[in-house]
Amino acid sequence: xxxxxxxxxPAASAGTGRPPLGQVRIIAGxxxxxxxxxxxxxxxxxSSDRLRETLFNWLQPVLPxxxxxxxxxxxxxxxxxxxxxGAAQVDLVEQSAAAVTALRASALRLAGDPPEGISVHxxxxxxxxxxxxxxxxxxxxxxxxxxxxxxxxxLAALAPRLAAGAFVxxxxxxxxxxxxxxxxxxxxxxxxxxxxxxxxxxxPA
Length: 205
Prior knowledge:
CATH superfamily: Vaccinia Virus protein VP39
CATH class: Alpha Beta
Oligomer: single chain
Shape: globular
Strand content: 25-35%
Number of domains: 1
CATH topology: Rossmann fold
Distance between the termini: 73 Å
Mean pLDDT: 87
Largest sheet: 7 strands, mixed
Structural class: alpha/beta
């Protein structure tokens, strides 16, 4: 009996050095149904389909033409969903080398070479935001690893990079909602068993 051929590695995880732990799918838009790998990395915890669908239903009126930041991008599920639904530019920032490799592969597969409207940045989120040339962003997703306690410094660093009236999605442990900067108004929220998802509107000065 001839040996069974090895299982193919999903294109977006090839070269990362880590097998995918699972997959998430893009829910709507031009890439509807496309799958993104979820690598087995510490702190990587993609939002459920239900939570993402709710979030993007809230954001859909402002997504077309928006400039979007996916900070602590991980699998890129939020950033790629935004691009699929009409965002003009999406910046994905991620520190893990394996995750960056997967993000770049997904960007090439979905958006062409070079990826139109999508930029993947291999960087520490706070260091990346320290560059005054970043932004302004109309929508930002902030979902750091829950054990890293990065909400306060990340949101403070993000604030000057936002456009007036921007929307910021913040995901944090259900028992401890993140403290946001002054002038951010809670627009919508939803809770799961483990997480609190808050969508905030940045009030114009």
